[in-house]
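Need tokens for this chain, all 117 residues.
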Amino acid sequence: MGARIDTLDGRPPVRIHGGSPLSAIDYRMPIASAQVKSALLLAALYAEGTSRITEPAPTRDHTERMLRGFGVAVARDGGSISLAGGARLTGSSVAVPETSPRRPSSSSQGVWRPRAA
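Here are the structure tokens for all 117 residues:
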């Protein structure tokens, strides 16, 4: 996409330098990752042109749903998701359901939570 990113031998801290326009991409993800897909979709909002991200297997689609809810045209064609840069987000009310302690989100599987006796 054209961003300049600095790390310490591929490890944190990560520095992302702005100042130059991002370019749209056509990216085929090597592994399925909702987190990576979300980062690419959010970056694509600021890119010039239409970006397409293709995932090898379905992942969670929370980011696509939220972007649509905020007025962004997100297209899906099989395993590919596309959106045009420069889309304007429109605020709206969002209800976020609570995660049950018996059914934690997969993103919190490694988090220890105390339970009442």
